[in-house]
Amino acid sequence: MVLLLGHTGYVGSEFARELGRRGIPFEGLSRRTFDYSNFERLYGRLRERRPTFLINAAGSTGKPNVDACEAAPADTLAGNTLLPQTIAHACAAAEVPWGHVSSGCIYTGARIRQLDGSFEIEPELMTRPEIRSIVENDSDRVAGFRETDEPNFSFRRRPCSFYSGSKALGEEAICGLGRSYLWRLRIPFNERDNARNYLSRVQRYARVYENANSISHLGDYVRACLDLWDIRAPFGIYNVTNPGFVTTRQVIGAIERELRPGRRFEFWSGDAEFYRVAAKTPGRIASWTRASCWGRAWSYAGWKMPWQMLCGAGFRSRHDSSPVAGAIVVG
Ligand SMILES: NC(=O)c1ccc[n+]([C@@H]2O[C@H](COP(=O)([O-])OP(=O)(O)OC[C@H]3O[C@@H](n4cnc5c(N)ncnc54)[C@H](OP(=O)(O)O)[C@@H]3O)[C@@H](O)[C@H]2O)c1
C-alpha cells in the first residue's frame, strides 16, 4: 500500500489517478481529516499501516499563484520546508522509502555552451540580446541544469522568490535522511483545463511574459516518478522534465495556430515593465548559513513528450540520453 499526501491537489490527484490506473492500492491523506504535518501522528500512521512507499505531493503553492507566497511566509515555509523535513524524519524512523515532489523553480536561466566548449550559467535568458539570440536561434548551445548543480534561485543565492527559496530549503532539509527520491517538476501542463496547467494559465493572462523554460507534462512526470520507484532506481535527485525547452512565444504561436482563440496575445515590453507592474518583488529574507548536501545525480531520459498535444510544429523534441536530458531552464 502507498500513502499519498496531498492527493487533493493538482499534482497529487494525478498521482492518485495513475496509482489507480496501475492497480496499486493507496491511501490519500488530507489535512482536512488527518494532520500529516505532525510527526507523532504521521509516524504512528506509518507504523500502523506499514506502507511500502509514501508520496509527498503536498506543499504550499500560493493562491492564485506563487506570488501569494510572498505575503504568507509562515504557511509557505510550513508546507515546503518543514513538512518535507517532518516526513523525512517520520519515514526514516519507520523505515519507509518515499518520494517528494520538488520543483525546478530553484534555478533561473540555463547553462550556455561557450565557444571553447565549456558551459557557463546565464541566469537571465531574455534580457541580454546576445543570450536571447542563442536561445532563439542556436538552441543546441543551451543546456539545462543538472541534478548536481547548486540551486541558483534560493535563499542562499538571492534574489529569489519566497516560494523558490522555501522549496530549495525543503530539499536541503531532507537531504541525506532516509531513503528518498526528490522529483523536480517544472511548469506542469496537460490536457485538462486547470488554473495550474501552464497552457490554461498562458491563455488566461492579459499579457504574457517572454521566457524560455523546461516543462513537464504532468502525466509523463507522474509516470516517470512511479517508474523510478518501480524499477528501484537509486534514491536521490531527479530532474523530471520533458526534453528540451520552449519559449513563451512558441507556446503562444502554437495556441494561436491550432486553437484560434479569437484574441491577440500581448507580451510585456520587457523585464522592467513586467517586474514594475506585474510581478511581486521577493520579500526581505534573513541570511542563512551555507551548506552543501546533494543526493545522487541521476537523469531519467527514456520517456517522450507528447508534442502533438501542444499542437505539433514549432517545438523541439530532443530525445538524447545525456545527463542533461532532464534539463531545467527556468525563469
Ligand atoms: N503546480 C506547479 O506548477 C508546481 C510546479 C513544481 C512543483 N510543484 C510542487 O508540487 C506540489 C503540489 O503542488 P500543487 O500544484 O498540486 O498544489 P495544490 O493544488 O495547491 O495542492 C497541494 C496540496 O498540498 C496540501 N497542503 C499541505 N500543506 C499545505 C500548505 N501549507 N499550504 C497549502 N497546501 C498544503 C493540500 O492538501 P490537503 O489540504 O488536502 O492536505 C493541497 O491540496 C508542491 O510541493 C509544489 O511545490 C508544483
Plain-language structure description:
The protein has 331 residues and is an alpha/beta fold. It has one domain (2-310): Rossmann fold (3-Layer(aba) Sandwich). Helices cover 32% and strands 15% of the residues. It has 9 helices and 15 strands. Strands 2-1-3-4-8-13 form a 6-stranded parallel beta sheet, sandwiched between helices. The protein has a 3-stranded antiparallel beta sheet with strand order 6-5-7. The longest helix has 22 residues, at 73-94. The two termini are 38 Å apart. NADP nicotinamide-adenine-dinucleotide phosphate binds at residues 6, 8-12, 30-32, 57-61, 75, 78-80, 83, 101, 103, 167, 185, 188, 196. The site of NADP nicotinamide-adenine-dinucleotide phosphate has 25 residues, from helix 1, helix 3 and strand 4.
- Range of helix content: 25-40%
Count of distinct structural domains: 1
Number of strands: 15
Order of helices and strands: EHEHEHEEEHEHEEHEEEHEEHEH
Instruction: Give the oligomeric state.
Output: single chain
Number of helices: 9
CATH topology: Rossmann fold
The secondary-structure class comes to alpha/beta
> How much strand?
15-25%
Identify low-pLDDT runs: 281-331
Radius of gyration of CA atoms, rounded to a whole number: 19 Å
Shape: globular
CATH uppermost class: Alpha Beta
Report how far apart the termini are. 38 Å
CATH architecture: 3-Layer(aba) Sandwich
Q: Please, what is the CATH homologous superfamily?
A: NAD(P)-binding Rossmann-like Domain
Query: Mean pLDDT, as a whole number?
Result: 84
Question: Which small compounds were modeled alongside the protein?
Answer: NADP nicotinamide-adenine-dinucleotide phosphate
